[in-house]
Specification:
This protein has about 600 residues and is of the alpha+beta class. It contains 19 helices and 28 strands.
């Protein structure tokens, strides 16, 4: 098992024992999480792929790995093309590939605890067309051959105090109960980890960088709830916080509880609940009503306490990032730094605030050609020296009790000057960032309608980027949070068709990536806010920028900026200075004044 080829061979041997001709392996857990615990990193263990989104299909004689445009370069560097075919999504779906490659009569296995009901239905139809069968396994065959598979975390839950949440769990459960009653429903399954955390005002540390705990909830129309969680994870403080209205039950009781819902009307979110949940409810005789998790929208629309907390978190985070940028300006051009050491130093500046709970994701610390990987993850193998006269991109964030941050800055490492091309590309990304920051839009506007504003300057030069422009952000929760999103509309892609509402957090992060050379991204977080416009016919919205740290003026071609864009730059940096200057001193403060000086 020392090589990925050996692991692939071992899985095929196991599949043969299980009388299967193939198996589908997503990056997923029982909660449809984007980021999963170590025990659920089955795709990474099997293939070596380190991205956060992807799937694989293993057949007896061939295998394929499926990734989107964010990982086109990364998957080819990490996964052996001698053993795996590279397939791009959404251009080719897993179901389409199975339909083309599966032999007639084959039995293709899947784990119903890591796939949605919709995927199962689609794959079943595709395989049936080939005379093949999709088979639910009782235990995941990868677990059978993964000898040193990590166990599930036993970390304790923690109370997320109302002074940070802005609303009690009882109030949130009452709102869910009201929704259930209005829709003639008895209960709803809450299976997304961040939804459980938000509803009960608890947090955990079972998933790296995301403060959630492995658990399920059944919320009922009377305002009570059942929390299915390992007993050793719950301390007296959490028991007292939850009170008598939340019954504590073991994870082993979850499926029997679903099967006991005979005659009940149960709401289940088809996008966030795995197929196994639907199967258990169906077996028990429940009437299943497919509906979006009722916590999703309230969680996305932040209350005033959460908004205030986020501003406070952003102020200290912006100062920490500014200290790092100052340090880089003094040291990077001398040589001796690499991506790992830079990321470690940035983390130390955040830790110096005394309020950092965790990073909000693995820092993307990327220099030169590594920056061209949109979602690059540095490790000992990929680590590159930060060379003088190069572009360095750092995408990072922190988890604080009062807010979750996410910010990207792209800087020039001297002592020389960037090329005209670099400045042109950076400035076009900046123009897109400013266009989105200044956007004003009517009620009902979707993220897909705004996306073109961030890309227009790049498109004019025949350029683009292969990732979304903006994602939702949680409140001391997931750094990627739906349902809102800014990106190209691509037939059902989650979030791009969600109307933006006041109170939603989003990122604003256009970019440009030149394969083999460099990457550029500028990211701030923004808050959707209502705008008062004299004579407006209807409600209009815009964005309040929440992230404050200097953007590198060395990479700006001022001749490409119009008057409005220059005003935005100068106003933004004046605000940056007003927020970070009181937190800085000495050389760092002097640097901040220079970094925030107006462009002319």
């Amino acid at each position: 098992m020392s090589t990925y080829e050996a692991r692939l061979t071992a899985l095929r041997v196991q599949l043969k024992k299980d009388q299967l001709d193939g198996f589908v392996v997503p990056i997923c857990d029982e909660h449809m999480s984007e980021y999963v615990g170590d025990y659920a990193q089955r795709l990474g263990w099997l293939t070596g792929f380190g991205g956060s989104a992807g799937s694989a299909v293993v057949l007896s004689e061939e295998a394929a790995i499926f990734t989107d445009g964010r990982y086109t370069l990364q998957v080819r560097e990490q996964v052996d093309g001698n053993n795996w075919q590279y397939v791009g999504v959404p251009q080719t779906s897993i179901s389409d590939w199975l339909k083309e490659h599966t032999p007639a009569g084959a039995r293709i296995g899947y784990d119903p605890w890591v796939h949605t009901k919709g995927w199962v239905e689609s794959a079943t139809v595709a395989l049936k067309a080939k005379g093949a069968e999709l088979v639910a396994v009782k235990s995941n065959p990868i677990d059978a051959v993964w000898a040193d598979q990590p166990g599930k975390s036993d970390a304790k839950l923690m109370v997320h105090e109302d002074r940070f949440a802005g609303q009690s769990s009882a109030e949130k459960r009452a709102a869910v109960a009201e929704w259930l009653t209005a829709n003639a429903l008895d209960s709803t399954v809450i299976s997304a980890l961040d939804s459980v955390a938000w509803l009960l005002n608890v947090r955990g540390s079972d998933v790296a960088n995301t403060p959630v705990a492995l658990s399920f909830v059944l919320a009922h129309a009377d305002g009570t709830a059942d929390l299915f969680v390992a007993p050793e994870k719950v301390g007296d403080d959490v028991r007292a916080h939850l009170g008598n209205a939340v019954r504590l039950r073991t994870p082993e009781e979850f499926v029997p509880a679903l099967k006991a819902m005979n005659g009940k009307r149960i709401a289940v979110d088809p996008d966030r609940a795995v197929a196994a949940i639907f199967g258990a409810l169906k077996d028990g005789g429940a009437t299943i009503v497919e509906a979006r998790d009722p916590t999703i929208l309230p969680k996305a629309v932040k209350n005033h306490v959460e908004q205030a907390g986020h501003r406070a978190a952003q102020a200290r985070d912006g100062a920490a990032l500014s200290r790092f940028l100052h340090w880089m300006s003094e040291t990077a051009h001398k040589g001796g730094l690499d991506e790992l050491s830079a990321a470690a130093r940035l983390k130390s500046f955040r830790q110096d605030t005394g309020m950092l709970h965790d990073l909000s994701f693995d820092t993307i610390s990327a220099t030169g050609p590594n920056g061209a990987h949109c979602h690059y993850k540095v490790d000992e193998k990929s680590n590159r020296a930060i060379e003088p006269n190069s572009i360095y991109l750092v995408d990072s964030g922190g988890q604080y009790l009062d807010g979750t941050t996410d910010v990207t800055r792209t800087i020039w490492v001297g002592p020389g000057q960037p090329t005209a091309e670099m400045k042109d590309r950076f400035t076009r990304v900046l123009k897109g960032h400013i266009a989105l920051a200044l956007a004003v839009f009517p009620e009902g506007t979707r993220g897909a309608q705004l996306d073109t504003m961030a890309r227009a300057a790049l498109w004019q030069a025949g350029l683009d980027y292969a990732h979304g422009t903006g994602h939702g952000v949680g409140s001391f929760l997931a750094v990627h949070e739906g349902p809102q999103r800014i990106g190209k509309f691509s037939g059902g892609q989650a979030g791009t068709d969600e109307p933006l509402q006041a109170g939603m957090f989003l990122s604003n992060e256009p970019g440009y990536y030149k394969a083999g050379e460099y990457g550029i991204r500028i990211e701030n977080l923004v808050l959707v806010e209502e705008r008062e416009i004299a004579g407006a016919e209807g409600r209009y919205f815009g964005f309040e920028t929440l992230t404050f740290a200097p953007i590198d003026k060395t990479l700006v071609d001022v001749s490409l900026l119009n008057g409005e864009e220059l005003r935005w730059w100068n106003d933004y940096h004046a605000k940056v200075l007003s927020i970070i200057a009181p937190q800085l001193d000495g050389d760092a403060l002097a640097w901040a004044h220079e970094a925030c000086a107006p462009l002319s």
